[in-house]
Amino acid sequence: MIAAIVEVGKLLGVVRDAIVATLGLTTLFSLAILGFARASERRGSGTNAVFGYAAIASICLLCCLAAVIYGVAILASK
Amino acid sequence: MQSDVILVIVIATAIAFDFTNGFHDTANVVATSISTRALPPRVAVAMASLLNFIGAFVSLKVADTVGKGFVETSQVTTTIVFAGLIGAIAWNLATWYFGLPSSSSHALIGGLVGSMLVAHGFGAIDGNGLLGKLIVPAILSPILAFLAAAAAITIAYRIVGRLRPGPVARSFRLGEVISGGLLALSHGTNDAQKTMGVMTLALVAHGSLSAKNFHVPLWVVLSAASAISLGTFSGGWRIIRTMGSRIIKMDPAQGFAAQGAGAAVILAASGAGYPLSTTHVISGGIMGAGAAKRLSAVRWGVAGNIALAWVLTLPAAAAVGALAYGVSRIFGSGALGPLLISISLLSLLAALFGRRVRATRSPVAPAPSAS
Predict the structure, then answer these.
(1) How far is B317 from chain A (nearest CA, A)?
(2) Which of B136, B178, B260 is opposite residue A22, by nearest beta carbon?
(3) Has residue A3 been placed in a domain?
(4) Do A23 and B163 count as a contact with CB atoms less than 8 A apart?
(5) Does A23 contact B256 at a Cβ distance shorter than 8 Å?
(6) What is the C-alpha separation between B168 and B78, in angstroms, rounded?
(7) Do B164 and A37 touch (CB under 8 A)?
(8) A-proximal residues of B, 286-305, CB under 8 Å
(9) pLDDT digits over B314-342, tens only?
(10) Residue B364 banded pLDDT, cuts 50, 70, 90
(11) List of residues 6+ apart from B121 with CB closer than 8 A
(12) Which of B129, B132, B229, B329 is the most buried (most CB within 10 A)?
């Protein structure tokens, strides 16, 4: 009976969006921290790894910001 | 003329409610950032206030649900809306006084349902709407925030767990500025809209707007956004203490996960038009972030008190809303009843603030000298 009253599809959509957003942003932000930390550790070594880690970290951070802006824009357009 | 006076009282009361909502819910938005030292209190509160204002303009789906989803719109009168608001404000003030973070949103809908019940009986309440659009999402949302925050903090610790804690904490404090900002935005989006819905309902009851063409006027959006923003700026320090440190002691990564999960749940629900309680959601997120690290880190006794306030909110606000409607009807259908109740509430408010100010200014007895 409750299934008839509750819009199950809509609620599941909320659950999916919330979990994907939370886990996606946390993973990207944590990877950015990891990348910057590794780049910082290897700063004195003069290898290309420094640039690699810094680039990956920057991309993760940019993706994080882009995801936030995209999410708010979707909400505003509804 | 009489109905115009009641409408003015209702709009003023709705704006006052929105102010108390911001005042009451400041804790939800800033407690985590403050307790993990991501932001100084004044900066956190100012930022939350600004983003609350902006958030109120992002979507209007929740306002639609509040205005049309729970009660029979055609039977609503301005006095019913007024009494519902009184129920919500009274419950908000009581829980603020005792330092309990209950839900302003559920208080608002509870108050409205209570006054509607007394005025027209059960037939005027949309039970399916209440269950499907309020109660089920209300039960699910803190559980969802709990699980999302727990999973997020587990992933974060897995990725950065072997790094030096100092730089990691500093980085997550920066992240908290973003997640806290999103939480403030989501609070403005979901909570300001509830008042917009109620104000629009009052305009429909007054006849200024047609029930068939239910839409939120721009001046309603602006006034609700300003009221919640000012309320947030004024802050609620007692509740901030409960939320920020008495549920769990948090590190910046936990704060980031709790705020991120809370913001994601509220924004996703706002897009679907569900009026959630920001208090329930962020408390769920805080507990999830704490429990994933160590179950005993969560002070379950405090969490239990908060849960009790949640359970009581709907019936208590409904009872006060019903009482306010009954009292106002004693004075007839004119503006006298709402006017007298407003004056009584303002007097009570002044007395409460006076007592609080006297308590904070009372001199501290000097320590006995060791002679």
Answers:
(1) 24
(2) B260
(3) no
(4) no
(5) no
(6) 54
(7) yes
(8) none
(9) 899 999 999 989 988 888 777 788 888 88
(10) very low
(11) none
(12) B229
Q: Coil, helix or strand for B328?
A: helix
- β-bridge mates for residue B71, sequence order: B125
**Residue B310 CA, distance from chain mean position:** 12
Regions of chain A with pLDDT less than 50: none
Specify the number of domains making up chain A.
1
Q: How far is B15 from chain A (nearest CA, A)?
A: 24
A4: in domain: no
Domain with A48 in it: 20-77
Q: Does B165 touch chain A (CB under 8 A)?
A: no
Of B155, B306, B20, whose CA–CA distance to A23 is shortest?
Answer: B155
Structure tokens at B81: 């809306």
Report the pLDDT averaged over residues B89-114.
82
- A11 in a structural domain: no
**CB atoms B269 and A14 under 8 Å:** yes
Tokens of A75: 């909400």
Q: Which amino acid is at B77?
A: T
Asked whether the beta carbons of residue A18 and residue B149 sit closer than 8 angstroms, the reply is: no
Structure tokens at B66: 């509040």
Q: ipTM of this predicted complex?
A: 0.91
pLDDT per residue as tens digits for the range B38-84? 888 888 888 889 999 999 998 888 888 888 888 888 888 889 999 99
Q: Is residue A62 included in any domain, yes or no?
A: yes
**For A22, nearest residue in chain B (alpha carbons):** B261
Nearest in space to B105 (alpha carbons), one of B218, B182, B189, B6: B189
Q: Identify all chain A residues contacting B137, using CB atoms and an 8 Å cutoff.
A: 11, 14
Per-residue pLDDT for B150 more than 80? yes
**Other C-beta atoms lying within 10 Å of the C-beta of residue B174:** 14
Predicted confidence at residue B2, as pLDDT, reads: 65
Is B236's pLDDT higher than 90? no
